[in-house]
Amino acid sequence: MSNQIGKAFVVTSFGESHGKLIGAIVDGCPAGMSLSSEDIQMDLDRRRAEGDLSTPRHEEDKAEILSGVFNGHTTGAPICMVIWNRDTDSTEYERLHHLPRPGRADYTAYVKYGGFSDYRGGGEFSGRITASFVMAGAVARKVIALSGIEVLAHTVEIGGIPARKVSYQEIKERVAKSEVGCADPEASELMAGAIRKARDEGDSLGGVVEVVALNVPPGVGEPIFDTLEGELSKAFFAIPAVKGVEFGAGFAAAKMKGSENNDPFSVEGGKITSPTNNSGGILGGISSGRPIIARLAFKPTPSIRKPQKTVNLKKMSEEEIVIGGRHDPCFVPRVVVSVEAMMCIVLADLGLRGGQIPRVNR
Amino acid sequence: MSNQIGKAFVVTSFGESHGKLIGAIVDGCPAGMSLSSEDIQMDLDRRRAEGDLSTPRHEEDKAEILSGVFNGHTTGAPICMVIWNRDTDSTEYERLHHLPRPGRADYTAYVKYGGFSDYRGGGEFSGRITASFVMAGAVARKVIALSGIEVLAHTVEIGGIPARKVSYQEIKERVAKSEVGCADPEASELMAGAIRKARDEGDSLGGVVEVVALNVPPGVGEPIFDTLEGELSKAFFAIPAVKGVEFGAGFAAAKMKGSENNDPFSVEGGKITSPTNNSGGILGGISSGRPIIARLAFKPTPSIRKPQKTVNLKKMSEEEIVIGGRHDPCFVPRVVVSVEAMMCIVLADLGLRGGQIPRVNR
Amino acid sequence: MSNQIGKAFVVTSFGESHGKLIGAIVDGCPAGMSLSSEDIQMDLDRRRAEGDLSTPRHEEDKAEILSGVFNGHTTGAPICMVIWNRDTDSTEYERLHHLPRPGRADYTAYVKYGGFSDYRGGGEFSGRITASFVMAGAVARKVIALSGIEVLAHTVEIGGIPARKVSYQEIKERVAKSEVGCADPEASELMAGAIRKARDEGDSLGGVVEVVALNVPPGVGEPIFDTLEGELSKAFFAIPAVKGVEFGAGFAAAKMKGSENNDPFSVEGGKITSPTNNSGGILGGISSGRPIIARLAFKPTPSIRKPQKTVNLKKMSEEEIVIGGRHDPCFVPRVVVSVEAMMCIVLADLGLRGGQIPRVNR
Amino acid sequence: MSNQIGKAFVVTSFGESHGKLIGAIVDGCPAGMSLSSEDIQMDLDRRRAEGDLSTPRHEEDKAEILSGVFNGHTTGAPICMVIWNRDTDSTEYERLHHLPRPGRADYTAYVKYGGFSDYRGGGEFSGRITASFVMAGAVARKVIALSGIEVLAHTVEIGGIPARKVSYQEIKERVAKSEVGCADPEASELMAGAIRKARDEGDSLGGVVEVVALNVPPGVGEPIFDTLEGELSKAFFAIPAVKGVEFGAGFAAAKMKGSENNDPFSVEGGKITSPTNNSGGILGGISSGRPIIARLAFKPTPSIRKPQKTVNLKKMSEEEIVIGGRHDPCFVPRVVVSVEAMMCIVLADLGLRGGQIPRVNR
Questions:
Q1: CA C26, CA B4: separation in Å to the nearest integer?
Q2: Least C-beta-crowded within 10 Å: which of A147, C33, C247, D17?
């Protein structure tokens, strides 16, 4: 049950990094929605490793829909989507079986599953699982689009280099053109440079991704526990390496006064809105009608080429480990689409639960 | 279902700020654990408004156990706990019915529930609901203590004033003595002064609370979605006014290099550990055996005495609102125990799910 | 979590037979529905022990609503309802603590909860828990009435005496007038006589209850597992003493040929219907628009005055037990309203999930 | 979420009769259990259509494990299993698209999913979905075997012809040898004859299957709603065509007196047991240590060759339908293994939840 999220739009993920495949099942998708593997491929391609900034593991990552779609439309039955793994090379991992890599789930998975977990490439703990999220997110993106909702994410910090504040329009236009998924061209270049430097040093970088949902109607989100922040943060933390999540002003709000942080209400074109959005579009866990805004902190890629200290689990002795394998020196650029996916999935789920999204697209 | 959290240790909250009561039901508590209302009262008393730093609403908040306990022990049946509301004064709220207070759930609840939500004191969206969390948390605290786990929270920032780094021992000894729940006496005094100043200006302050779980065995937490970070953050965001959550190094990790952020493994006394704990005791969503560490950002109390702009929902006209009622100028000091409660609840749930905590305390 | 049923209309039950109270929480009830304790009392009164056919334990059973209702309407917040126990006499049970009564949960609860379960009157396993179901069912009855759905149950067999087939109109008119909840006056009298005879012999009788839901629109029920039959049967088996559940032709269908059992489709007044209803209004787990029909087999009351063989759990020796206490010689008449409650609860849940019932009653 | 059952051992089914595949995902299977596709194939082969008593659609039905197993053992990650459909012939169904077959889900699925459901062979409502149940059940069978539990099912009635009472030993030895899954050789022959006769008349037969679980320890099952009867019946009703479920004496108990139906407790070899088992091994929803016994009533196959009345959904006119396609004249023989699968799945789930089955097989 832990490999599953959602109550009305339910996503189950499965598969391993070096196993036969990676997959996702979406249950609860409205019937009658047009859906093809191309819809999914579009998002998946944005996740692909490309250029010299990312891992040399170049998976084609072709999405295949195995069920739930008939005559080009969703049927209401579970949608199973898979990607067959092709470019797997597990030789490295045999050597590392009893040497848990620092910063990875190797050690905790070993303990939890009594040594039986698939240790090749992190098994189900690999960042590769985000390909499942992206597939499910692509379906969710179409679901929320039925209600006019749009989701955008972009890199706002890498290696401590911040991007300047940008407009939603800039995000739409520039993220795809940036090597690092950043809508600020100057920062983008600096970030790319920092990643190359880290890579050449056998090291890695982290960063921050911001995600925005536009046109979410007021009333989405369920009190007390299944709030927008609660459900979104739970989904975000499923992305490996996320160590912090904030909404609206976030941690900065802790330093403000009430009179500064409160968003006053106003009327614009007969609709209630707010000139500011420190709340990130969420009040009491429910959408206010303003854009929903979240930021996610990603730690640097734990798999680095520099030697590190670890423990041999068999001998219980300290050893030095040098990790080979193929890893992104900074996965922030590739993870932008995964962050969007999670926002789409949660909005589809809460929208269906709240009745803002219909169960059949007539 | 949205008023509920957990899968094995399940907490359901109910009640309203100005209704008859506030309550919680715990389902799944191990049978055979000694439990009395005193156990719950102890935590509840820590949440009580006291002194001149908090709301003049002084509820006695006496916990009453209504089911699930027999002969001083839990029976395995649901434990229902309530607090009867006494000191309610709803006159203020009739006036505010169509004037949503900025920063509160008034507007979003109005939209979501078609104007039928209980608007007195925020109804179920009131911070008073945290009394339910504290009651359930007190039960959970005893459950995890069966496995030796201990949870401590403390204020680390108020109004931008940071506390210095403290030891776990200092937290245990000093938090109870501080007016603001802070283990650094100097910072504590500065924070209290800042709150008084904000109060006198009719304004409010926010802050940051850190929570630590000690002695959590490795292996607690469920991949991929029901991770420690995912479940904890979802629980934390149920506390009104939380706008950010981070684990271990958190947002700071985004600025580190992999070689700095990774916690190397070492052996100490025949056990695997790490000299650093940037991961906050969590790898791949599963506990590593090191202390679990989280920080929560709280926005300033939205209910302030300063005039604010809002909209009359009936007339759809902009109006100025001045909020009376009784509110904390900074609820961070009182919320420390609620943060502990959430950590206890999630650890009890994941511990029972993972089998680290037994279902019957024989 | 096991004390809970439903995904959109979620009922949590709590309390014990000889504890302070019996209660239920309904989460997910549409906001804006008128609701008062009288609505609940009406159903509760039908469950009350009265006359000489039932237990001498005469509880007043006054329903009290503690949350979720404001200004006479549901708010969308959890509705907590309780009945305070008054007429409890636990002396009998101290004697029986280590002597499990045959046919009751005494032994299995003892094993499951390590001897810590509340053994007085069966604790949470008492038939008294059905008072919780009836309260939640009364709320659900109002919810499904928003869509015109009506639920009727009646006794169709007691002690092997069958009632003749009756019309829905007869059920509506006669059940309330019958001592045994039976719409066939002749059978009703025979059944009452049989119960009196069994009572006088220190013995007990079982029976069969039929329940019908009228005006359920087609399309209610979720494949593959959350089908109407699946969800209904799970709810029905929560009523103590149910040992069998069948829908439509039920076990009789197993003896028919396909050509006999299939309900042909026809058109009546522009609507699709069927002249027969062997399917009990359910095809593929989904409502067809025809009345939904189920029958539940109840075993005889296990607590009888005749001496029985049991085992002393402390001494592990065989003993004879004579049960005092106060018990119905046949609880079928009193359970009719509980069966209706379960049907109402499941239809409210599936109707809300499927979108046939709105989340806000505007 | 409706395509899923279980809370600790969670089964998700997907796929369609005439789509690419049929599949199941098992989440929560203990790590460290040996598992191969042969384990699954064994059960699947028992479900295969063979001989002249069943459908001429002869699928090879080869199980393939796609994830969750590594080095011959389960890893703790989700186990995805699929069967690729090969022998599909959908021509028949184009003709029937707007002519719902009596007794099938065609009409209700059409309404529920706005005409978008996959109508070929019943889509996800096809009896073929039970192949998913059998695969998941085969995994569950190995899980419960870790605790010594064994599950046996057998045909006890077809076309009104009853089998005589048989011993568990007879079930084990004879079911596999019977054409109709019946442990009584004489009845077996009569049943086979009745099926052939019905088939030759273009008609079909139903029947009753009994299932028994041996060696279930006392204490399995969760009150109040997630009882053994509740969870089992919900699972059983997911098998298409089940119209009734009873436990122990079942509907016959309704005709007994308390003194007849109650199972007295006794001591045998230092263990508590009962000489009779009218309760079907379940008291208060919890296992008593005696064999768990259930019986399921199956309606006759709805797809028959005889002409039937239906309605053209496009023209809303009454029409006669003659169904071609390939169907079992009685699917009871083939469904025996599906019934076992459901029992295994529910026992694995409740055993893991109750802690009777360990999460890691060390």
A1: 12
A2: A147
